[in-house]
Amino acid sequence: MKKFHIIVIIGISQIVSCSHNDSEELILVQGGIFRNPHSKFFNSNNFVHDFYIGRYEVTQREWREIMGSNPSRFRGDNLPVEMVSWYDCVEYCNRRSIREGLIPYYIINKNVKDSTNTCETDSLKWLVTINEGANGYRLPTEIEWEYAASGGQLSRKYIYSGSNIIEEVAWYWRNSGIAFLTGMWSWSDIERNNNATKRVGQKNANELGIYDMSGNVREWCWDLKHAQSSEVSGRVWKGGGWMGVEFSCEISFRGVFDPSGKGPDQGFRICRCK
What is the pTM of this model? Predict the structure, then answer.
């Protein structure tokens, strides 16, 4: 009987531990309209529904546990994973969903070209569609990402995610190396300064308790943007990165990149429907 009690206690402690880890990793974002005037969606008709988003950017440890390898240039379990394409990330979401007993959110067909994808430099153009009603992991939409970054219903109307002072919340080109860089942006200065990604969660969180939505790595979103006039087409990224300039770390900034492209400042965070 005593042995049975020990087994039960161990089992309960494991359940509590798993629940704690889940609550630590995902933040419930209460839906509503945009309250931050620095968002480009402010005063729009966009209503955001409740959703969950990662407290941190996906780390290399998390990536390796699901994908079995680590593509990152800068190595460390608690550093954000980088050198991952948009396609890599949707595959990660599906594989992680399956591993955790969830219904995969994406239907990925590698044998059919996406006719809506006009990105000339995309070498893959897989057809990726949404599995309606699925409860698995996914990438945030641009609107969801910007809503969470801007503080949601708790917004204090910051320019960056969590502050008007970039140093408080972001690793970017000036502060992500050995010394603080001054003057104009220079790639040669960045290289000599050994700029790199940083362990997730070191800077201040935003109003919702989410870290690194400004700086560290650029984060993939779901949205596909088509070229207009001189613009490029591709998938949206948000948040700037360790080599990014100040304005790219603002919550409103939208970047677009080849979905099959990879970079040492390109990562992501997960999301789930409520």
Answer: 0.90
